[in-house]
Design goal:
591 residues, mainly alpha, Serine Threonine Protein Phosphatase 5, Tetratricopeptide repeat, two-stranded antiparallel ribbon, 21 helices, 12 strands, 40% helix, globular, TPR-like_helical_dom_sf, SusD_RagB_dom, Starch-binding associating with outer membrane, membrane, signal
Length: 591
């Protein structure tokens, strides 16, 4: 019976991979394979694990920032424009991860169940064992990742209890019970931790070739494995696959979510847990000294990007997608109109105001010396790095961008459909050496990170401040204050005055919390974090998005888009289609 079940599932995966069939349980008869051909052709197993990688949500930019106070879309048909305008519903959810992540988990469960039976090599049981361990470790790590995305998107309160999703730790078949209730959020987190820890046990910290036999892990050395055997399975050829270090990062991301105000009532995860998980990873990266000096402009460091190869990462990036070839799609979406772009994401005045003065003080503080008549003077250098403001340059020819209402170009606010609605364009993520002129279009290489180290440093800072206060170090020798000081130094903030503002709040946990949250907002802007952060912090989603309209050399803050969110929307919905199929599922309150 067991063999027949595996034969069935291997033929299912081939069907789906080849045909893209929506129904996992209606494969084409002609694609059926017998047990021997399934287990003796490792491409079947590879298909299962590849499907997991292909479904990772962070395989591309979502720009859900356009549903927050950080940005708006200039396209009224954009999904996030509609979401923020009151059209978010259980049957209209651009943030839905239910079907995608559950399908990925199904494939991963099949991989875990079958991995010990697949023949990966020709007559080499030792290598088969090692390959099985690696692929099983990848599957556990990926399963933890998809659980994280499910909890982030669909975890929520239902009938007074914080629920997660249904835990599926074995592959489902035609005889499985599908009408199952959701597990609690806490049960889901414990499953996630177990999967992440199993991945950490099975996988190397990083996929790198080892130099001598003494570096072969003891358990494989006892089996007779050589350095060459280890390198064949766990060496540099496997870079960018899920590793032990990446599993540690996923665990830290999930712990931050579980410890946050919106989820902590249904979780035993503490701020100290989150700080410890992140701190363990940062210790491996050299502590605060490991923060990449060039990490602020990872997206535009031309020499670094052009010299990447063989799965190597920039110092700032822990995990990324495949590099691909030169492209110009991102710039075509977001460049200003005079640079032949569609100006899709428009940063808000709200976000611009979040950048402090160059001396480190918030612009609302009297010591910032902020001048509303010269609003961009003496500001945090990150403002010009991340946002195109009026009078700065963009594009391959460093053309001055005029966003004024009477400036005479389509870059001006609300001039044409592809003009900015806020008076600003996005600069971050874009390669300014891309040329979109139809007469001479050229693309450039782009890096798409799945996990950046700066995110992990900010996870530690947030959790450590909550657990131990601004200067508490736990067992790691560095504090939330130390991390934020290093991040701001890298940005060029507070250099001339010793960052007097940071020093003024180093003994105030609440003030440090606000500073850490603001640094996270700035450092991770446009990367798809803000929407989730506002919700897990249990903050108001309805702050109107504002812009800055300049006409006749006079600037005016304007309201651009009201945000229509109800209080219950700090948790996302269970898809209506699932509720209609399965009576045991409970919807989150308010949906």
């Amino acid at each position: 019976m067991k063999s027949l079940k595996y034969t069935y599932w291997f033929f299912v995966i081939v069907t789906v991979l080849i045909t893209g069939c929506d129904d996992l349980f209606e494969p084409a008869i002609q694609n059926n394979r017998d047990l021997e051909s399934s287990y003796n052709e490792p491409r079947f197993a590879q298909g299962l694990i590849i499907n997991g990688y292909a479904r990772i949500p962070r395989n591309g930019w979502s720009f859900n920032d356009m549903a927050t106070d950080d940005a708006v879309s200039n396209n009224e048909n954009n999904a996030f424009f509609n979401l923020a305008s009151g059209q978010w519903a259980s049957d209209n959810n651009p943030l839905n991860q239910w079907q995608n992540s559950k399908a990925a988990i199904q494939y991963l469960n099949l991989m875990i169940a079958a991995s010990d039976s697949v023949t990966f090599t020709v007559n080499n049981n030792l290598l088969d064992r090692m390959f099985a361990d690696r692929i099983k470790g990848e599957a556990y790590g990926l399963r933890a990742l998809f659980m994280f995305h499910l909890l982030q998107s669909h975890g929520g309160m239902a009938d007074g209890q914080l629920l997660g999703v249904q835990i599926l730790d074995t592959a489902q078949d035609l005889n499985s019970e599908f009408n199952r209730p959701r597990n609690t959020f806490e049960e889901c987190m414990q499953q996630l931790y177990a999967d992440a820890n199993r991945a950490i046990e099975l996988l190397p910290l990083d996929y790198e070739d080892i130099a001598n036999e003494s570096q072969v892990p003891e358990r494989y050395r006892q089996m007779g494995a050589s350095r060459n055997d280890f390198n064949r399975v766990f060496g540099e050829d496997a870079r960018q696959l899920l590793s032990g270090r990446i599993a540690m990062a996923i665990r830290a991301q999930a712990a931050l979510l579980a410890a946050s105000p919106a989820f902590s009532s249904g979780s035993t995860t503490t701020w100290e847990d989150a700080a410890n998980y992140a701190g363990q990873l940062l210790n491996l990266n050299g502590g605060v000294n490991g923060l990449a000096p060039t990490g602020l402009t990872w997206y535009s460091n031309v020499a670094e990007i052009n010299n990447l190869g063989g799965g190597v990462n920039q110092q700032e990036i822990l995990w990324r997608t495949s590099l691909g070839g030169p492209s110009s799609n991102l710039e075509a979406q977001h460049f200003p109109p005079t640079q032949f772009g569609n100006g899709l994401l428009n940063p808000t005045q709200n976000l611009v105001d979040a950048f402090p003065a160059s001396n480190g003080y918030p612009i609302s503080h009297p010591n910032s010396n902020y001048d509303p008549n010269a609003p961009y003077a003496n500001r945090d250098p990150r403002l010009n790095l991340f946002i195109v403001i009026n009078g700065t340059t963009a594009g391959p020819n460093n053309q001055v961008i005029n966003t004024t209402a009477d400036g005479g170009t389509n870059d001006g606010i609300n001039r044409v459909e592809v003009s900015t609605r806020t008076g600003y364009y996005m600069r971050k993520l874009l390669r300014q050496d891309v040329n979109l002129n139809p007469n001479s279009v050229n693309g450039q290489l782009h890096v798409m990170p799945r996990i950046r180290y700066t995110e992990l440093y900010l996870i530690y800072a947030e959790a450590a401040n909550e657990a131990w206060g601004p200067t508490g170090t736990g067992s790691f020798g560095f504090s939330a204050y130390d991390v934020i000081k290093r991040i701001r130094e890298r940005a060029g903030v507070g250099i001339q005055n010793g960052d007097a503002y940071l020093e003024s709040v180093r003994g105030d946990k609440d003030a440090m919390r606000e500073l850490i949250r603001n640094e996270r907002r700035l450092e991770l802007c446009f990367e798809g974090f803000r929407f989730w952060d506002i919700r897990r912090w249990d903050l108001d989603l309805t702050e109107p998005a504002r812009g800055y309209r300049i006409q006749s050399n006079v600037g005016q803050v304007i309201n651009v888009q009201n945000r229509v969110f109800a209080p219950h929307m700090k948790y996302g919905p269970v898809p209506l289609s699932e509720l209609l199929k399965y009576s045991s599922l409970k919807q989150n309150t308010g949906w």
